[in-house]
Amino acid sequence: MSNVIDWSARFAEMFNFVGMTEEDRQLIKTSAPLVLARLGAFNDQIYDRLLEYPQARQFFVTADDRPDGPRIEANKQTMISWMRATMAAPLNDGFIRYLAAISQMHHNTPLHRPGLPSVPPRFIMGVLSFYQTGLAELFEEKMSDMALAWRTSKAWNKWLMLQVEPLLASYMRDEKDE
Ligand code: HEM
User: Fold this and answer.
1) Total-model pTM
2) How many angstroms is it from 146 CA to the middle of ligand 1?
3) Residues of the chain with pLDDT > 90: what percent?
4) 140, 90 in Cβ contact below 8 A?
5) CB 161 near ligand 1, within 6 Å
6) Fold for domain 21-171?
7) Which residue's CA is minimally distant from atom 3 of ligand 1?
8) Which atom of ligand 1 is nearest to the CA of 50?
9) Residue 60, pLDDT score
């Protein structure tokens, strides 16, 4: 029997479990212009925050422990790419594989950056939490229709939580549970 995880099937199962709907996907896509306009500010806040915590900071500093501007900028761009893909709310295999590939990149960091550990998963969760809060505040601030703001926040909450497992796939040991 194959021990390979069928990420698409898992994702589809959890999509149903959290009660995500086509309307939720539409709300996410419709909110994209608002989110895009705030992405730069979100990124600046996230990386400033990461630099305050030594276990996160170590990935973004030079040998003499100063913020590594070019590296931080490069990572901000990868975060923007991920967010652009996320706000399109795709359900195809490619997106789920993309998330799992990100987890591999984070987990394998010592191979690319000798001397550094894997990216601690708690900070990946922390970034997702940051986005949940930031987006809820953004919609409250910018949408005149509060009911719409609330529905959009709920849709994003589900969508970001669904990404937790694939984004941490490489950290998991119970490879297959079905
Ligand atoms: C939701 C949260 C996150 C997302 C979506 C994300 C996304 C990504 C992506 C797409 C890449 C691959 C870049 C490439 O293809 O070259 C990457 C690489 C990387 N990320 Fe993240 N990231 C997240 C959180 C973090 C956090 C919290 C840290 C550190 C505390 C971090 C550190 C890194 C590092 C060091 C690499 C490069 C790994 C290497 O050199 O091989 N990321 N990230």
Assistant:
1) 0.94
2) 34
3) 90
4) no
5) no
6) Globin-like (1.10.490)
7) 124
8) 30
9) 98
